[in-house]
Design brief:
Jelly Rolls
């Protein structure tokens, strides 16, 4: 088993007033040659957006983009004609493919929004752009991991992206112990502690810590305090 640990306080950070953001991997003005990506996982941004503020129309191409609001709402508009609000408890996937423009705003002037935005390199380029949004409350399992993202055609649970990747969320109670078995031997898993304290193998992680694990068949996990844990299995090549 090989591992890499990214403690929360070592992430890139920028505070623009309306946007307070932390970057696990190199992004925008944060550049660390040792933290460009983890396999196909390219971006893991932890964003706080002030009320009534957000990102204006901007382009993307050839990237699979997953947005998970943790608190508050995100208003989305794009050049495909999609318009709507993504709420906490929902998840959005956008395949940028040949190119798409979109905007993301906090529609509530009286409260902030917190979200994770995750970019994954696709396994094929120049696909037709697509958009999908679901509530993961409908697939949530108490004190178990539940799948929110998988490859196209792999399962009907959650949403799909153009990559051999599986994302699982767990809302897990103190004392929970279990394991995660990797789907493919070519994969690694990036674990991100959204809330709480967990031990993976011999390593204890706290709120917003991240850990990449590869060259293994499974992860042994222990939950030390009530926790929300995101596991992202991605190809390493």
């Amino acid at each position: 088993m090989k591992t890499i640990i990214h403690k929360a306080e070592t992430r890139g950070h920028a505070n623009h007033g309306w946007l307070d953001t932390h970057h696990t991997f190199s992004f925008a003005n944060y550049y660390n040659p040792e933290r460009i990506h983890f396999g196909a996982l390219r971006v893991l941004n932890d964003d706080w957006i002030a009320g009534g503020q957000g990102f204006g129309m901007h382009p993307h191409d050839n990237m699979e983009i997953v947005t998970i609001p943790l608190r508050g709402d995100v208003e989305h508009k794009d050049s495909m004609g999609n318009k709507g609000v993504i709420q906490s408890g929902e998840i959005q996937v956008m395949s940028a493919g040949t190119g798409v423009f979109h905007s993301e705003y906090n529609p509530n002037k009286d409260k902030d929004t917190q979200l994770l935005q995750i970019w994954v390199f696709p396994d094929k380029k120049n696909v037709k752009p697509r958009y999908e949004q679901i509530s993961y409350e409908t697939i949530k399992k108490p004190n178990e991991f539940y799948q929110i993202v998988s490859p196209e055609g792999a399962t009907t649970e959650g949403m799909w992206i153009h990559q051999q990747a599986w994302f699982n969320l767990g809302d897990l109670a103190k004392g929970w112990e279990g394991s995660y078995e990797l789907k493919r031997k070519e994969s690694g898993v990036y674990a991100f502690v959204i809330e709480g304290e967990v031990t993976i193998g011999d390593t204890t992680l706290h709120r917003r810590d991240g850990m990449g694990i590869w060259d293994t068949d499974k992860l042994d996990i222990k939950i030390n305090t009530d926790s929300k844990l995101l596991l992202m299995e991605v190809p390493m090549q």
